[in-house]
């Protein structure tokens, strides 16, 4: 008897489809009984091929309504993930609030979030200067981020602001987040159902109090990344413990109710047991993750309740800068 096959429908923007549904994933999934099927978001879902599961990253109201209509007719089809749960991550204010709900066993390492405020009128801060800024509980430099985090080009326009003049010209509403020195390294933690992968990426270098006055008033992240500034050598980075990463990931999975996301975490240079979650993204660029094909395939098989023992995980791309558990 031939093994059963499972149809996973996906609904992405063209850009997301090109970066996520790579031929290597299609081939690997097909080899293990999973067929990835493109969904046309302009057509009713009920008129498209039957699915065992649907994954999606579209936010327009018409798509959300189609999804709701579909689930009312086919409640047994698994939706990854419900739009009402994803929406919390589309706002950088509510996004990090979920970290407060994360409970981890008491130990040396602890998880927090940086101090941040939502500002709707920058003129008030610019007019009153440092006093207004201090009243917000902030000090320069800060990271300025658009309030919305919907994956659009606009939502990725982040800046490092070093004084009041740097606030001029920024669009509101905006999130001002304290900059915490973190050794020039960010830990990117990918969550794929029960599987967790933590890798290192270069980030902004540490900034001393004396250096703040020498900074440009505002620097776009694209400018910073191309400036040649480097953090610690990634090969010398001490990774957070596996247990800690797993507890934080499990806590965020429970707090958000989501199964496909990643979060960016930094370690305070002045307190190496203090970690801060600075960003959470729904259905991120998994293709950048080591061994993403077997991880995603295992997830699909687990979702449709088929044992995934035959899915092999290669260690060829794993080194000392990767923490992996599945």
Strand order of the largest sheet: 5-14-13-10-11-15
Task: Count helical runs.
Answer: 11
Strand portion, in percent?
15-25%
Mind telling me the C-alpha Rg? 21 Å
In N-to-C order, the SSE pattern is EHHEEHEHHEEHHEEEEEHEHHEEHE
Provide the structure class: alpha/beta
User: Helix share of residues?
Assistant: 25-40%
Q: Would you tell me the overall average pLDDT?
A: 88
End-to-end separation in angstroms reads 30 Å
What's the layout of helices and strands?
Layout: E1 6-11, H1 14-20, H2 23-31, E2 34-38, E3 53-56, H3 61-73, E4 78-80, H4 83-86, H5 92-97, E5 110-112, E6 116-119, H6 122-128, H7 130-135, E7 142-146, E8 159-161, E9 174-178, E10 185-192, E11 195-202, H8 209-212, E12 218-220, H9 221-225, H10 242-256, E13 260-267, E14 274-282, H11 292-303, E15 322-325
Parallel strand pairs: 1-2, 1-3, 3-4, 5-14
Antiparallel strand pairs: 6-9, 7-8, 7-9, 8-12, 10-11, 10-13, 11-15, 13-14
Helix pairs in contact: 2-11
Summarize the structure.
With 326 residues, the chain is of the alpha/beta class. Helix content is 27%, strand content 24%.
